[in-house]
Design a protein that fits this description.
The chain contains 5 helices and 6 strands; from the N terminus they run E-H-E-H-E-E-H-E-H-E-H. The protein is an alpha/beta fold. The chain is globular and about 45 Å long.
Length: about 160
């Protein structure tokens, strides 16, 4: 069993791909969270942005982890950026189970040049402790591999402590 849990939501697959790469490099458990909302296509894009701006959430579909969330040495939570906020399913997870996350790191995926580091503080409102590590990635950008690999190395150093 792994000591690291990678939980993520991905509407388009970009966050999923980043989290798969990170989980593989860390030999971490990888679990996708979903809700029952169809966010595909252009209508889904607007629906996603609107729900993020409103900070609305929907019940999550059941998901399974090998251990209780609080028993992992580190939970890495991956979210796309929607309208300057984390994705609504990630907010739903944080609202319902965030206090179980004592040691948490964040991976944001974004489409713009802006890093959206204020989202880390938004997410910290729901967790037992403030995040220990975070990275904001722009898939398909020139610096993506550099920042992703830097985050992976930071996680390895953190786990060695």
């Amino acid at each position: 069993m792994s000591d690291v849990l990678c939980l993520f939501y991905s509407r388009t697959g970009r966050t999923e791909e980043a989290m798969k790469e990170i989980a593989a490099a860390l030999d971490a458990e990888l679990v996708e969270i979903t809700d029952d909302v169809d966010r595909s296509g252009l209508r889904g894009f607007f629906r996603a942005g609107l729900s993020a701006m409103r900070r609305s959430t929907h019940p999550l579909e059941n998901f399974h982890t090998e251990k209780n969330i609080e028993d992992y040495r580190l939970v890495i939570l991956g979210s796309p950026v929607w309208a300057g906020r984390c994705a609504s399913p990630v907010r739903a997870l944080l609202k319902r189970r965030g206090l179980e996350m004592k040691r948490v790191a964040y991976v944001l995926t974004r489409a713009s040049d802006r890093h959206y580091e204020e989202i880390y503080d938004q997410m910290d409102r729901y967790t037992a402790e403030k995040h220990v590590l975070a990275v904001s990635l722009r898939p398909d950008s020139v610096g993506y591999v550099f920042w992703r690999d830097g985050f992976i190395q930071d996680v390895k150093r953190y786990l060695e402590q």
